[in-house]
Amino acid sequence: MVTRRSVLGGAIAATGAGLLTAGGLTPLLGAGSAQATAADAAGAKPVTVPPPFTVRMPTLPVLSPISQLGGQDTYAVTIREVAREIIPGVQTKVLTYDGHFPGPVLRARSGRKVVIRHRNALTMPVSVHLHGGSVSPENDGGPMDTFGPGTSRTYSYPNQQPGAGLWFHDHAHHMESEHVFRGLSATYLLSDDNERSLPLPAGQYEVPIALRDARFDEAGQLVYVMDDVFGRTTILANGRPSPYFEVAARKYRFRLLNSSNMRFFQLRLSDGGQMVQIGTDGGLLERPFTTDTVGLSPAERADVVIDFSRYPVGTKIVLENTLGPGTPDQVGKVLRFDVVRTASDPSRVPDALRTLPAMATATVQRNIVLSMDEDGRQEPRGLMDGQVWDHQRIDQTIAHGTSEIWTVTNANKIVPHNFHMHLVQFRVLERNGAPVGPAEAGLKDTVRLFPGETVKLHATFDTYKGTYVYHCHLLDHSAMGMMANFRIR
Questions:
Q1: How does pLDDT run across 441-456, given as a tens digit for each residue?
Q2: Number of Cβ within a 10 Å radius of residue 193
Q3: Angle, CA of 255, 261 and 266, to the nearest 5°
Q4: Across the strands, what pairs with 83?
Q5: What is the CA radius of gyration of the chain?
Q6: Which of 76, 182, 186, 358 has the fewest C-beta atoms under 10 angstroms from its C-beta?
Q7: Measured between alpha carbons, how far is 100 from 60 in angstroms, rounded to an integer?
Q8: What is the pLDDT of residues 90-120, one digit of tens each?
Q9: How many CA atoms lie less than 13 Å away from 363 in the CB half-sphere?
Q10: Which one, of 311, 264, 316, 320, lies nearest residue 292 by Cα?
């Protein structure tokens, strides 16, 4: 592992081309292996990814606090490298929170403080960022706010925000993309009184699913190359390749997270069946809506309910991905739901889920431009407003307590991006000059931007003062400099 990887020369010119065909997958155009593996040199029998739906999708383990005294939940987590089975029969080295791949689930409650003491047992510095969390600067896990090997860092999360499906991941600059690719991400489910009062599917029928892609060498080890758009063509659901998941003929609530570095997903059921989306990054929508497709750019979350009671026992329904790059056989089969039994179902999806806070009058407007070199150079730059990130430069200064409108544009012609702002949940007002659809009508902290797209966002900065970052959450891009600082004072 290194602190900085060279970008694949020439690959950037084709970056994301396969992501733009929402109606179908584009073929894998091909990218040679970045390095010869030990297995190649030794003539070992190559490891092959198993056929789809031959391994079971596990449910993610839930972290237990070491203390619940003093009105807070306290956790102790060790960040360490372990070997875990991803491909059956193969032990793959991964980076983990407490040995779990993918990362575990931490369940928190609005208004109740969570304290996590992370011990770094790696050989590299790390920084833990609670993505979507409203936290003070010293607890944000900024790109330069790292702690080294053999040391510990305690983060305090007050959880003074509505319930939402958050997550945490490494954010050490120049290393964040590789660390997350190798496993350093986990789910943080924050619930509130309103959500707990609703008759939504719960318990074993509420299932967090972390989706991502991966690339393996012939020994079954993860291969990381920065901006490896075309090589990561094994799709993992909760850490297993295209698994199956047994369900009862009733409603399930799926908490979906796209924990990929670069891959966009467009998800649908293979029979064209309906899903009910009830939430996004910042928690529940005001009203549910019925859809046959769910799109997720890297770091985005979706909260969906699928009613399997419409299927007889014995039915097998595939959750498909209709975006490339990669062939349908490689990236099109995400997981399969196997309806194996009947079950009673007292749950339902109410017509009204929550009331979103009113948007205050915006007093400032800003324009933000994301771009990347597309000329084929060996080490293209990621740029925010034409500049590579400098941790000492303040790019935007914001008055505490104000609301602002940010117009964010992807200036590239080929390369897709998305936009994530630390500290705040924002509202998406417009996409390309038109009102947004229901999937973007709630609170958000990450929003997709295909080439040439523009979104208009409304954000209120009324919690903490200090310096935070905003960046492209295609993490390989932010590691290449597509990031900037804002200071609230």
A1: 999 999 999 999 999 9
A2: 11
A3: 55
A4: 93
A5: 21
A6: 358
A7: 9
A8: 999 999 999 999 999 999 999 999 999 999 9
A9: 9
A10: 320
Is pTM beyond 0.85 here? yes
* Cα separation, 187 vs 45, whole angstroms: 36
Instruction: Provide the percentage of residues in the chain whose pLDDT is more than 90.
Output: 89
Tokens found for residue 360: 């205050």
Please confirm whether the linkage preceding 312 is cis (ω < 30° from 0). Answer: no
| Amino acid at the residue 80 | R
Q: What is the largest CA-CA distance in the chain?
A: 66
Q: Which two tokens stand for residue 184?
A: 């350093």
Q: pLDDT tens-digit profile of 225-278?
A: 999 989 999 999 999 999 999 999 999 999 999 999 999 999 999 999 999 999
Query: Is residue 397 within 8 Å of residue 445, measured between CB atoms?
Result: no
Exposed/middle/buried for residue 373 (C-beta within 10 Å: 0-12, 13-18, 19+): middle
Q: Cα separation of 108 and 153, whole Å?
A: 20
Closest Cα to residue 279, out of 255, 296, 262? 255
Question: The tokens 């969906």 sit on which residue?
Answer: 304
The angle subtended at Cα 474 by Cα 162 and Cα 278, nearest 5°, is 35
What single-letter DSSP state applies at residue 441?
S
Residue with tokens 């990347």: 372
Alpha helices, H only, 381-431: none
The answer to whether the beta carbons of residues 339 and 313 sit under 8 Å apart is yes
Distance of alpha carbon 363 from alpha carbon 325, whole angstroms = 41
Across the chain, mean pLDDT equals 91
Place of tokens 């719960």: 202
**274: which residues sit within 8 A by CB, 6+ positions away?**
290, 291, 292
The Cα–Cα gap between 101 and 95 comes to: 8
Is the separation of the CB atoms in 225 and 96 below 8 Å?
Answer: no
CB 131 within 8 A of CB 91: no
